[in-house]
User: What shape does this take?
Amino acid sequence: MDKIPMTAAGHSALEAELKHRASTERPRIIAAISEARSHGDLSENAEYHAAKEQQSLNEGRIAELESMIARAEVIDLSKLQGDTITFGATVTVVDEDTDEEKVYQIVGEAESDVKQGRVSIGSPIARALVGKKVGDTVEVATPGGGKSYEVLSVRFA
Assistant: This one.
């Protein structure tokens, strides 16, 4: 089994979601199934089928969360330092075409959220940035075509 790198915050978020799904959602769905079952004929009972589908999705996500947590390799960002981009680095880049600055933190797959500036270690931008230093230029293949970025700063929070 491959280890999944993640930050302590990402690990905590997964554990919180697992706890919520197991202790809150699971009993709510079981109650909904019981309620729908009491309505009679299950073959034409849309509430029952919807509740069973919810149960299936919830149990699938619980299994996925348990697997990710079991394989997690939590990386302590406070112990990271240096000027080379690695997992956990917060990187400021400038788009060489538009002069637009962007800030990305390189995190694990499970905790990535581009809208919040957290990109997965497996994403094209992160793969291009890893190993680079301030002043380096990186080329990234994106769905909209190639992009060129210059690394302005690297920090570990």
